[in-house]
Amino acid sequence: xxxxxxxxxxxxxxxxxxxxxxxxxxxxxxxxxxxxxxxxxxxxxxxxxxxxxxxxxxxxxxxxxxxxxxxxxxxxxxxxxxxxxxxxxxxxxxxxxxxxxxxxxxxxxxxxxxxxxxxxxxxxxxxxxxxxxxxxxxxxxxxxxxxxxxxxxxxxxxxxxxxxxxxxxxxxxxxxxxxxxxxxxxxxxxxxxxxxxxxxxxxxxxxxxxxxxxxxxxxxxxxxxxxxxxxxxxxxxxxxxxxxxxxxxxxxxxxxxxxxxxxxxxxxxxxxxxxxxxxxxxxxxxxxxxxxxxxxxxxxxxxxxxxxxxxxxxxxxxxxxxxxxxxxxxxxxxxxxxxxxxxxxxxxxxxxxxxxxxxxxxxxxxxxxxxxxxxxxxxxxxxxxxxxxxxxxxxxxxxxxxxxxxxxxxxxxxxxxxxxxxxxxxxxxxxxxxxxxxxxxxxxxxxxxxxxxxxxxxxxxxxxxxxxxxxxxxxxxxxxxxxxxxxxxxxxxxxxxxxxxxxxxxxxxxxxxxxxxx
Length: 518
Description:
Strand order of the largest sheet: 2-1-11-10-12-13
Number of domains: 4
GO molecular function: medium-chain fatty acid-CoA ligase activity
CATH topology of the largest domain: Rossmann fold
Structural class: alpha/beta
Number of helices: 16
CATH superfamily of the largest domain: ANL, N-terminal domain
Protein name: AMP-dependent synthetase and ligase
Radius of gyration: 23 Å
InterPro entries: AMP-bd_C, AMP-bd_C_sf, AMP-dep_synth/lig_dom, ANL_N_sf
Domain AMP-dependent synthetase/ligase: 23-374
Keywords: Ligase
Number of strands: 27
Low-confidence stretches: none
């Protein structure tokens, strides 16, 4: 008998995805609280039943393995429910940036081609309604926040029986899609597998000191992998996830005080607002901060001081490799060492590993690496060399094996917690009839770390002014991506091979403050 045949009965035993973890949580922690969102409070057993009902709704809408689901809304416990329901039926969820412009939403609808769209009425209903009308008016759109017209999330899950029969999931299949930008001037959805999400959730659980007694304030945007990993780490540990739809300093203080939350994702500018609002100590933040003045705040991922990541906070990561999966809390200096589930090398353009101390592109392989970009076969082929994923980031090794992150091959701008890619903003500006050439750079900002600055060469005879270009970007991109400053130049410095010399543009026009780790 062949070995494969002899072991065949056990093949299905190893099939395990995020939906299976929920089943086990419902068995192991049936009465423990899982989610808090306004008046909504559910135990793990209740969450399991709701997810099974939502899975039935998706199946009734024709959702099959490999189909895509798009979330066009702000934070909600229903994002977690939808992700888990997708895990049950084998679909892929993309939580979109709720601040996308109509053009960006239209692009994602065409590109991702979702079978079902979950959308929100509050604040962004008009944009979402317009996007549906312009795309496919008869497509499957489900309103999650109580819309009076059309299909309603809560009404739909109350009307169906819970699904309980789910085929085993292959852990390497994609479950989550996160749109990133920077390699071609247009966004691409990186696909992360069940296996990757489970591993990164466990890594985050260990790094941030999350236990079943923890409460995580889901206050950062859930289209960011760092926020989702905190959410999944808490879910994996059996803790409480407390959701707010968007960042409001007053509401965050109220939630921390009332729910005694222990972990959070809060950007530095919001911390400043919280300090001002709580100067009189009205709200008890001691579950999250040791100091009432929050002087122990160190980074957006807020966690107990004894957590491994707080003790050694450096690291390197990107969405395509599961987030922050190289870190100093795992040892080493600079950006630290890779997790046990990731292999890394620093290589030249030919993919051959470079000697210690020599800068090159960071390559990675292993179960944490994405399954590829959705609908980008050429980019996928370009990014993989001899079984290694090319990160498009530069790094080098130290003598002790630690990794140093040198910087992006295509420079990234960091404004608050938002990643902004010059290529995307430049592609937008080049569509303007008055722009002949452009280079987008980051300039230091005391509040947001960096602001976006566009150095523009006008077309001959064009009389375009800065406000026109800023408004042009505002109409097509999320508002935080638009240039805050526009400066005109006669020409842009270029390299010997004809490409714009970004380093020279930085020096001439005040660039700096780019993010670096290690």
